[in-house]
Amino acid sequence: MSEPLIEVKDLRVEFDVRAGIVKAVDGLSMTVNRGKTLGVIGESGCGKSITARAILNMIPKPGKITHGEIIYHRRLKSDDGLTQMDDIIDLAKTDPDGKLIRQIRGGEIGMIFQEPMSSLTPVFTAGTHINEAVSLHHLIPIRKVGDQIAEKVMAHRKVTKEEARVIAIEMLHRVGIPKPDQRVDSYPHQLSGGQRQRVMIAIALSCEPSMLIADEPTTALDVSIEAQILDIMRDLQQSVNMAIMFITHNLGVISSMAEEIVVMYMGKAVEQGKVIEIFQNPKHPYTQALLRSIPKLGKKAAGERLATISGMVPDPFNLPTGCVFHPRCPLFMPGKCDKVVPKWTKVGDEHWANCLLYEEA
């Protein structure tokens, strides 16, 4: 039986800006199970990254969680280290700058951010970044990349500074950084884009978290390093029963990494189910269009254009009525899709779609 680690229930995240209110996440519900991988896919701007930040309660202002729950089934060891204590926390109601969420960020829930070029401070070295991400509250002078990794390790694990540096070097080695004992003292500008991405991955994995949020973790990596990083995630998942929330546009990676998929569009989940079921039998027209747009080697006829999703993503300040996908939907039903808001409908074994095509009359 699957054991839930994170349960997102009717989550709503809004940005109140001068032009109006943007509903970045609009009524999202999903579950990340302990030791399993949940894939989250969708076009840019559909709310994937904001959902990830909401779980860690680190939404940038003026955004805020306006409704819903993010239930974290926390598991702690007792002082003797022999027994485990279970605790249930609503992360949406924690203080974003409080001690509790700082213990959880980095230590219990790690995150690989989408853009490594802006995630590392240019005046700190690689080791320093890995340390800093683990400890947002330790005011230790930081100068090197290895120091950044080590400070994070020291904040969440009972180790000395020397042991933390050894862990930092080991993590850089595991993510494929050449000469990690030297690179640990490098500055970000001395590393390539792919190496900076690997430093971010090392930061996220250094404390062996209960859950890893991977937001486009292999975007800047070549194919061979990408495969190596995915193997590291699988190994750690098996060794410490780590859950993974994998956000990506690469459907090929999702098919090999995830057990379940959530398809998002304009802040809403439009389809959810097992990977094999969704890839073999997609129900929502948006999911069908996403899968049709994947290039297929050897099957493209001469002069045939790659399939695309017609239309444009709607204006977030003026969303369509009814189903938000209806202006782009090839199966649009006039008078219905543009007026009635669809509800979750079970379309198969552990397979749900948010579409009027499957609702009973």
Output the number of helix runs: 12
* Mean pLDDT over the full residue set: 84
Rg on CA atoms, Å = 21 Å
Q: How much helix, percentage-wise, in residues? A: 25-40%
Description of the molecule:
This protein is an alpha/beta fold and 361 residues long. The protein has one domain (4-262): Rossmann fold (3-Layer(aba) Sandwich). It has twelve helices and twelve strands. The chain has helices spanning 48-55, 99-104, 116-119, 126-134, 145-156, 161-174, 180-183, 193-205, 223-240, 251-257, 275-280, 285-292; strands at residues 4-17, 20-33, 37-41, 63-77, 84-90, 109-112, 211-215, 243-247, 260-265, 268-274, 344-348, 351-354. The strands form two sheets. An eight-stranded mixed β-sheet has the order 6-7-8-3-9-10-12-11, sandwiched between helices. Strands 2-1-4-5 form a four-stranded antiparallel β-sheet, covered by helices on one side. Strand 11 and strand 12 form a beta hairpin.
Keywords:
361 residues; alpha/beta; Rossmann fold; 8-stranded mixed sheet; 4-stranded antiparallel sheet
Quick overview of this protein structure:
The protein is of the alpha/beta class and 361 residues long. It has helices at residues 48-55, 99-104, 116-119, 126-134, 145-156, 161-174, 180-183, 193-205, 223-240, 251-257, 275-280, 285-292, and strands at residues 4-17, 20-33, 37-41, 63-77, 84-90, 109-112, 211-215, 243-247, 260-265, 268-274, 344-348, 351-354. The protein is built from twelve helices and twelve strands.
List the helices and strands and how they pair.
Layout (H helix, E strand, L loop, with lengths): L3 E14 L2 E14 L3 E5 L6 H8 L7 E15 L6 E7 L8 H6 L4 E4 L3 H4 L6 H9 L10 H12 L4 H14 L5 H4 L9 H13 L5 E5 L7 H18 L2 E5 L3 H7 L2 E6 L2 E7 H6 L4 H8 L51 E5 L2 E4 L7
Helix pairs in contact: 4-5, 4-8, 5-6, 6-8
